[in-house]
Structure formats: C-alpha cells, structure tokens
Amino acid sequence: NAGVTQTPKFRVLKTGQSMTLLCAQDMNHEYMYWYRQDPGMGLRLIHYSVGEGTTAKGEVPDGYNVSRLKKQNFLLGLESAAPSQTSVYFCASTYPRAEVVNTGELFFGEGSRLTVL
Amino acid sequence: AQSVTQLDSQVPVFEEAPVELRCNYSSSVSVYLFWYVQYPNQGLQLLLKYLSGSTLVKGINGFEAEFNKSQTSFHLRKPSVHISDTAEYFCAVSDLRGAYKYIFGTGTRLKVLA
Known about the structure:
The complex is a heterodimer. By secondary structure, chain A is mainly beta. In chain A, about 0% of the residues lie in helices and about 50% in strands. By secondary structure, chain B is mostly beta strands. Chain B contains no helices and twelve strands. In chain B, the strands form three sheets. In chain B, strands 2, 5, 6, 10, 11 and 12 form a six-stranded mixed β-sheet that branches. Chain B has a four-stranded antiparallel β-sheet with strand order 3-9-8-7, with no helix packed on it. Chain B has a two-stranded antiparallel sheet with strand order 1-4. Chain B starts with a strand and ends with a strand.
C-alpha cells in the first residue's frame, strides 16, 4: 500500500521557471492538502481540496496554483518560481468520516525539496 | 481562530532520561489535538491524538500526552528516551469541521544524546 506519493522528490529551478508537483494517494481520501515547511515556521497550508474538482486557498497561497481533476491526485503548480519558494513541500490527505477509526489523522507524503536559484 | 505554541525549539536529553515536549494552544471553539513526528528526510507520521474521552492519551513508541483544558496544554512525554527518538515533533490542532484545516506548531527538535 503506497499511501501518499509525491513526485519529484528533489528539484532545482531557476527564477522564473515553472514546474508542477504531483501528489497521488491510493486511500480513497476526499480531503487533500499542500503544505510548505520552512525552518522555524512549522508547516503552513498553501492550498487544499475537499473533493474532486474543488480547491481552496490556505494560509500562504500566493505564487501557487492547484488542481484536483481526479480524486486521487492533487497537483501544485508554480507558474514563475521565486527564491522565496525554496522550501520542502508536503502533501497530505485524510478521510473525513466520523466512524472511521483513524478519523482526523493526516497521512503525509515524504516531501519534495525545491530549490529556486 | 486557532494557534499553537511550542516554546522549545530544541530539547537535548540523554538516553534513558525522561522528556517532556510542551504544547499550548488557543482556540475559540472546541479543538482536537495531535502530535506528529518527523524523522530526518521523511514526512510526518501520527504519534497520538486526543479526540475525546480520557485526557491521558497513549501513542506509538511509548509516548503519551495529557490534554489539560484549563491550561490549554497538550504536553508530550516519554519516561525513557532512546537514540532512535531523535526527530522533530509537531503539535497540531484542528476543529475537524468543514475542510479539517490543521494548525501546526513550529516544531521541537528532540536530540537524544548517548
């Protein structure tokens, strides 16, 4: 069982380049999230989705776009990368059903380390 | 609005000694509390959670936490740490409503010394 898979795991970009991070989950989760992790700042929510075809802004959405065309995939795009977007990006998912024993638990991918020069 | 404070950014402790990692939160609504652990170069995984019931919650790897509503705290404890417990620990809260948005603390880096 793969859980949450992120690709790529590492990427180096030049300022102004674009790229897409892919998150795929095989747990049939409805809710998916993109976070960025920076030293001393914990995890900050970029965008999230509560279902196929829906997305919403989180705490730090500027400079990012997302899409959820399929329930199992959540894509994070950077249209014009900036050095301030150098970070480790985490995708997470969860299943919002009260009767599920692991309710409330976020399942994380292993992260994607992005460097923007 | 909710917030989470982890006052200790780093905690060094000798192997087999006890440890407590502190977490305080604020919220205008009822929240649920979580501790996650992140080992080097890995994603986060759930250590334990408080949803309801007993305020003393036991998790994996011998960790436990106590929910204290009056002090708005959810401190993580382990009576005897191992080298393998060296990791970063994050406290998080969520009201588990709507989109289930979670607020994470800034993390505490636990370093277990031999």
